[in-house]
Here is the input.
Amino acid sequence: MRVVLAGFNTDTANGGGSPETLSAAYARISRDPRPISELRREASMEMEKSRAANRRIVFQYGHGSVAEHAVFNFDILDLSRLAAEEIQSFRLASFTEKSQRYIRLGEDLAVPPDLPPDLEADFRSAASMLFPLYSRLLDGLLTEGKGPETAREDARYVLPLAVTCQMGMTVNARELEHIVRRLSIHPLAEVRELAALLLEAASAVAPSLFLFVEPTAMDTFAHSMSPAGDPCCEVVLVDCDDDSRVGGLLVQRETGLSLKKARTRWDAMDQAARLALFEEALDGLGVHDQVPRQWEFFRAELETVVSASAFAQLKRHRMCTRLVSAYDPVLGVTVPPSIAGSPLESLFRDGIRLAEDIAGRLGKLYPYMLTNAHRRRVTLCMDGRELYHFSRLREDEHAQWDIRAIAGGVMEKVRRAAPLTMMLTGGKSEFEGRT
Here is the structure.
């Protein structure tokens, strides 16, 4: 694994080799009447005073938001797909990752640093057999007339989660400290190593912004996962608001009534008046527009079982609340439609059996050798805005088939529960076709 500090923000007008002077200068704005440009110039000239100010204001006074003015860019290389899921679970950071859908993979494998030495040969041997299976599936799909993108994205289902990836990450200092603290107590040594490397790289240029890095009980609890449970794979709508949730807020927007009275008025409206209210609020909605903030009060709780490949896309929707179980063979595997029922399926199943056999010998490290086809249970809570975003991306005709099927199941159930609130959901291709 390698972590490279690719860049960080600095005061370009006044020089300086650290983002600390910006956070220190901006911290003074609330109590110093001088122009910001003067505060920045002074902070840049007095690095040690800036660092002392950061420690005092951010940590002694508890104004952590000041650390958000410092931003870091990282190259993260040779990290396993399994470990990538852990760092990408944090909301307030940006990630761009190498895609297994678009790139034909070589035999790039992350060996867990805590793998017992007596198991390393078996681990490498199993991986060395799965990579050729991937190539044979890919070539077989191409021979059957599948396009290169379809062949790559379906053949990858037989690859283990130990396959390496690379990503770019952009994050502010406050969130980075949170990431480091939480990941430093993760059960996997690879993830703990990632936390240490991130802290080492960032603290070398901004030591005053990273002080609360000792994990707490809440950081430990965050890594606890539920067992897989029963193997039901349907999308289940556990709880969902109906149209009255947003409808009452739209009435309040028009009338200025208290929310309680606005909801009473909503209850008295006929369906034509309700439809007109929603149509007026959504008039002019473009394919890239967010729906109004009233939709953030809408909630839908769902659960389903997804493959690792589908989860790799679902995890990008970080604004929803997401709880996951461990990956577990008891939940079965997702077989790509292009492979199911074809002569390639027996080859695919051979790979799954091989992966599960070695995974069963790895103890707590077993997920490394499970494949992109293996599943985990996911419980989701999504607000109305995020549901629109999810629908636009994942119900689109260009979306990958696995996540598109999940999105279709989610949105079908939510649209049934709240047809007016969800009246303009749909993939980008569908939405553009109706407007």
